[in-house]
Amino acid sequence: METLLKVHESEEKYRFDNISGPKYLLRGPRSDFGIVVLMPGEDFPTHYHRQIEENFFTLEGEAEIYIKDQHLLLRPGELLHIPPLHPHYLINRGDIPWKAIFVKAPYDTKDKVNLNWVPGDSSMPDVS
Fold first, then answer.
1. Could you please report the per-residue DSSP string of 10-66?
2. Could you identify which of 45, 104, 115, 117 might form a hypothetical disulfide with 32, taking C-beta atoms 3.0 to 4.6 angstroms apart as the criterion?
3. Predicted model pTM
């Protein structure tokens, strides 16, 4: 029988100097759940997942996201679902931090694939 989990956000740390990046509140066994913050001018490198779907729900600020051949702006109250095999790059070009909830499933710590691509390069690589 699985155990219940109750965690307060303050008990976990953000990946980048405990100021920004992803902060996992749940890691497995079937999904990941957390909060991500990008400070103004900060980005999150291009990557994709082979099997995992990723969801972002914006709480504060705005972030630009590049997905395959699309360029979107994520605003407070908006949910974005990213299916597997969709490379994505995030950047905060605004004046305030972007803060969002993220959910990834199914759980797999080895599913992420990094790509060397930034806006301004030729088209984002096709991984399908």
1. GGS--TBTTTBEEEEEEE-SS-EEEEEEE-TT-EEEEEEESS-EEEEEEEES-EEEE
2. 104
3. 0.94
